[in-house]
Specification:
With 229 residues, this protein is α+β, with helices and mostly antiparallel strands. It has helices at 2-21, 23-35, 78-85, 97-100, 129-135, 165-179, 194-203; strands spanning 39-50, 64-67, 70-75, 109-115, 118-126, 148-156, 184-190, 206-216, 220-227. The chain folds into two domains: 1-36; 41-227, Aminopeptidase (3-Layer(aba) Sandwich). The model is unreliable at 58-64 (pLDDT under 50).
């Protein structure tokens, strides 16, 4: 049943892309999705950041904030997302937006960073355990139950990397977690992504679990993780 629901969801998403973006973009997105989804095996590291009184630089956590000539927005609904798309904000680099945006209906929020209306960075976050397990299915293989905020599907526009945006956004999200009285922030990283792995030292995050993510035919996801003592 899960596979049939996933196929129906992909079909619906494809129709949305075709209707809103046209045939060329729909075909391009579909081919890219299929080619990278037949089988994929990744070693992952699951990090946790303990949220105490000191979470790094203190940011005022609001729905929209300006930092260092950048705009940070927390998007909670498709209606809010359409506001940006309809008001000249450039989402060119986020090619999976039309597929991923269905998460907004599942109480999963989208953190966006813009400069001069150009999208520089995006991260998906969930502050309650049920939407967190949708965003990060590996949680089902861990001991986490409540009082966590999860970050996943993070990326920064390659033209703006090595400028401290990743560190700034994560510190901002740590502040958000603190304001929500969360005990930990949890997120995964591909073990092969050296830039992200190196960034964890500055964030004072520790590896809590390690394991593998296997995806077959873009329909089935399997996780195997173990606690790192």
């Amino acid at each position: 049943m899960k596979a049939f629901r996933r196929i129906a969801e992909l079909w619906k998403q494809g129709q949305t892309i075709l209707r809103e973006q046209g045939v060329f973009y729909a075909v391009k997105t579909g081919l890219s999705f299929v080619c990278t989804s037949f089988i994929r095996i990744q070693k992952i590291l699951i990090y946790e950041k303990n949220i105490g009184k000191n979470v790094g630089q203190a940011y005022k956590v609001t729905k929209a904030v300006k930092l260092n000539n950048l705009e940070i927005h927390i998007v909670k609904s498709i209606k809010e997302l359409l506001y940006f798309k309809n008001n000249g904000y450039d989402f060119t680099y986020y090619t999976k937006l039309e597929i991923d945006k269905v998460w907004l209906d599942k109480d999963i929020k989208l953190v966006l960073v813009f400069k001069d209306k150009e999208l520089l960075h995006k991260s998906w976050i969930a502050a309650d355990i049920q939407p967190a397990m949708i965003l990060a299915p590996y949680l089902k293989k861990t001991e986490y139950q409540e009082n966590i905020l999860v970050i996943e599907q993070t990326s920064t526009n390659q033209d703006f990397r090595r400028q401290g945006i990743y560190h700034m956004v994560y510190t901002y999200i740590f502040n958000l977690a603190q304001s929500l009285n969360k005990q930990k922030v949890v997120y995964s990283a591909e073990a092969s992504n050296k830039a992200v792995i190196n960034a964890q030292n500055k964030l004072n995050a520790k590896i809590a679990y390690s394991g593998y993510h296997v995806r077959l035919f873009w329909l089935f996801d399997f996780y195997t993780v173990k606690r790192v003592r």
